[in-house]
Amino acid sequence: MIKAKKSLGQNFLINQDIIKKIINVVDIKNKNVLEIGPGTGNLTLEILRKTPKKVILIEKDINLSNLLQKKFKKNVKIINEDILKINENILCDESLIVFGNLPYNISTEILSKWILNLNKNKIWFSYLILMFQKEVADRIISKFNTKDYGRLSVLANWRLKIRKIIDVDAASFRPKPKVDSTVLFFEPKKNFFEFKNPKNLEKITRIFFMHRRKMIKKPYKQLFDKNENIAFQMGIDLNLRPQNLNFDTYYELTKKYEYL
User: Fold this and answer.
1) What backbone phi and psi angles, to 5 degrees, belong to 97?
2) What pLDDT was estimated at residue 225?
3) Can you tell me whether residue 164 is helix, strand or coil?
4) Within the chain, which residue ranges are assigned CATH 1.10.8.100?
């Protein structure tokens, strides 16, 4: 009997109805599939039933890796490694469809890493179907002028089209977590703002949202110093708060910052 490890944020999805809804989001027949944190393999089993071309599993827990190897044998390739330490761009020669019940404690870190490391010429995935803590998912899909709007919203919507698939209640997992979850679907955008260094967008949003309830005058000055004419040219009222600026404003500000 495999016990979930709290230190790894493990909660195993056991609700078959939810598993089937996740698997049916996209057609994976003859496609390359990557699953992050497969756990005991409940979702993996349904993936294999859809006859994909190749299945790669990334599982950090050595006990679970061994269990999955015995369970699926040569039908899958298992990588026993921390997802944050893997260069996702070299996992497969062809694009991957990615499924992941992401550990709550590192889910935002995983998504941010993937976005910031995206190669504009060759994107390593065609779709992401990912499970997040509901509160985190709400932040990812939130729009400006709402309470959940923040750094993650701006960053995720920069390179990805996002839609909500389904909310998943805590009773769908073993052990039962204290929070509900949400499955989101991500698809790469063909048109997006190009930056010299995407980490500048991360920097801009981090500084602006550091004090999200305060006016943007101070973070703006910190970033642009004496260049107040930029805000004037863009029609930005420095008495606004961070959540009052839409996606494109943050992307334009990042481009202006890079030109200075």
Assistant:
1) -100, 125
2) 85
3) strand
4) 199-259
